[in-house]
# Entry
Amino acid sequence: MVNGDEGKLAYRGYNIEDLARESTFEETAYLLIHGALPTADQLSAFSRDLASHRKLPSAFIASLDMLPLNTPPMAILQAGVSLLAGYDPDIYDESMEANQRKAIRAIGLMPTIIAAWKRLKNNQGPVEPDESLPHAANFLYMIRGRKPAEATARFMDVSMILHAEHTFNASTFTSRVVASTGADMYASLAAGIGALSGPLHGGANAQVMRNLLDTKDPERVEAWVEDQFKRGKRVSGMGHAVYKTIDPRARILQNMAQSVVKDHPEYRWYEMTERMALATQDVFRKKKGKDIYPNVDLYSASVYHAMGIHHEFFPAVFAMSRSAGWCAHILEEKFPHPPVKPALYRPESKYAGPPERKYVPIEER
Ligand code: ACO
# Structure
């Protein structure tokens, strides 16, 4: 549930602030998929299950290794998730139970695909997942080759919780449209990844970092923002189609970001983020006579950067987090409550092209 006017977000009725403070990605994923918070036994079984599905087949890694190194991480993830269909023993089973198993496998494997591609791109061997680590910490371990500090792992965990679900946004809607045709879980997820990759949606976090790097000097932030507006460009990480006040996820990340990076040599990017938000709000108010607020993509950028994740990978980190929400929506599309007859999405459109006309043979044109 999203309330854009009041800046509220809840997953299955649970407030996002409570989930960010108390929950873990594993518990949140369970909540989204099963509709209720797990008991301790259910959570440990779910976490074990997820951890046991993190390892990619060696043939899959070998096929990644043959791809051009400049393939964008989101293209790798989209293609990789499609290819997981071939490795899934349940692929032709469309029962609820089989689809839940596919969801666990997809959520478990997406971080490994991203981390493996990051390592291969940097001419490093992929790091095998560690089943003893929580989901977020294991991702950082596979990316960096060393176990993360507790605060760093918790930031990634909370960031994954905050990115896990957001009702009918563009990518979730895309996944549901594909699922509504009866397409399988992986095809539906891959479509969502494609929709998320654009700079107006999940690509915005990478653009935030590009903008910070482009600005370079904290003293240049205000002039850079003025220039963006002069050129009719948007400042990434600012504004939201639904929230008319600060995105609650941005506020949570902002509070955590500062404490995670405050003693880090890359702290200046966080400071510049704050300046960029203020400068954008200032110019926006002057030009449009109204307010604009940070969205979820603003504050993750400088922290992911400080964690050693290259910004080209930021949208993929968003996608692996959103996988939980996508899977929940795909399951709901396939198994609606209360059960209704399956229906394809088929929006009406207003034709605005030429009227009916006679076909002209090519030699007469
Ligand atoms: N910077 C500058 N101007 C902006 C921004 C921005 N970030 N966002 C909106 N505006 C301006 C628009 O240019 C428009 O001006 P106009 O009325 O003079 O034409 C006005 O504000 C309203 O813009 P809309 O596109 O109608 O607003 P909407 O609420 O639909 O846009 C969107 C939402 C697409 C997210 C927009 O704010 C944007 O492009 N932000 C930057 C990209 C970004 O951060 N995306 C991530 C969103 S969160 C997510 O997807 C996970």
